């Protein structure tokens, strides 16, 4: 591809990213996040709006999540918000589908336009995984996703298969299945926070951690971290 076209596309990508960040930070006053009454009031308004405009809210959240992942955004905060707005199960379903589509779009975009850059800067980082992906790219990328991507940030996980020229179908389904456990935990945590905020006029740190809606997802997340550690040791050990 012509280098000028690559630079033009990269410029558009950066412009979109900066625009999204500008809009988010323009309308968000971080001082309000420390005011519980503000959080409770706006939480109720948000849930009421969602209940009265459910299809619209799903469409907006789904579209935003796809774009967010496409722009190299972190997945866990969005999954948390999804659970807060839609509940554990619905939030999980919406987030998994939107994250998978966003990741797949990012993968194809990177494969077509940034393949050389990715190989240049990231191939050494995952040299030890090449053997496994050549054996069965679907199974090992699924395990890679399930085990937290070996500690690699979510955005980088989404573009690493460019190095292996992974088939889009295998990428899509491995991502879809591999994201379910972690997204469900974050969605459950978000749903738990929403329930606690709606039921309590005041909260404290100890109130939060003693609620099963909070400590159960946290324990689940810790379990996934432990299983991920041993899973990587077992499935990705040197042959």
How would you explain this protein's 3D organization?
With 239 residues, the protein is mainly α. It has one domain. Helix content is 78%, strand content 0%. The protein contains 12 helices and no strands. Helix 2 packs across helix 3 and helix 8 runs antiparallel to helix 12. The relative contact order is 0.11.
Descriptive keywords:
239 residues, 0% strand, mainly alpha, 12 helices
Binned, the helix content reads over 70%
Shape: globular
Number of helices: 12
What's the count of strands?
0
**For the residues shown, what is the average pLDDT?**
78
For the CA atoms, what is the radius of gyration? 20 Å
Task: Give the SSE string.
Answer: HHHHHHHHHHHH
Largest sheet: none
Strand content: under 5%
Structural class computed from helices and strand pairing: mainly alpha
Q: Domain count, please report it.
A: 1
Summarize the structure.
The protein is mainly alpha-helical. The protein has 12 helices and no strands.
SSE diagram, text form:
Blueprint: H1 3-26, H2 36-52, H3 54-70, H4 76-86, H5 88-113, H6 115-122, H7 130-135, H8 137-146, H9 154-159, H10 168-199, H11 205-209, H12 212-235
Helix pairs in contact: 2-3, 3-5, 4-5, 4-10, 5-10, 8-10, 8-12, 10-12
């Amino acid at each position: 591809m012509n280098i000028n076209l690559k630079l033009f596309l990269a410029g558009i990508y950066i412009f979109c990213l900066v625009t999204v960040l500008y809009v988010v930070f323009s309308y968000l006053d971080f001082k309000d996040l420390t005011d519980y009454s503000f959080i409770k009031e706006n939480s109720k308004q948000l849930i009421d709006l969602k209940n009265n405009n459910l299809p619209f809210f799903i469409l907006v959240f789904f579209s935003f999540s796809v774009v967010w992942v496409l722009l190299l955004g972190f997945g866990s905060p969005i999954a948390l918000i999804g659970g807060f707005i839609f509940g554990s199960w619905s939030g999980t379903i919406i987030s998994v589908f939107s994250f998978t589509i966003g990741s797949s779009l990012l993968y194809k975009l990177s494969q077509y336009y940034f393949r050389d850059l990715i190989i240049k800067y990231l191939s050494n980082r995952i040299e030890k995984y090449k053997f496994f992906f050549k054996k069965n790219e679907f199974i090992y990328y699924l395990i890679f996703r399930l085990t937290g991507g070996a500690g690699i940030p979510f955005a980088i996980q989404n573009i690493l298969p460019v190095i292996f020229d992974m088939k889009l179908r295998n990428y899509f389904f491995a991502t879809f299945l591999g994201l379910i456990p972690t997204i469900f935990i974050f969605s459950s945590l978000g749903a738990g926070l929403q329930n606690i905020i709606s039921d309590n006029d005041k909260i404290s740190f100890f109130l939060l951690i003693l609620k099963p809606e909070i400590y159960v997802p946290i324990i689940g997340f810790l379990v996934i971290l432990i299983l991920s550690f041993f899973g990587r040791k077992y499935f990705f050990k040197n042959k």
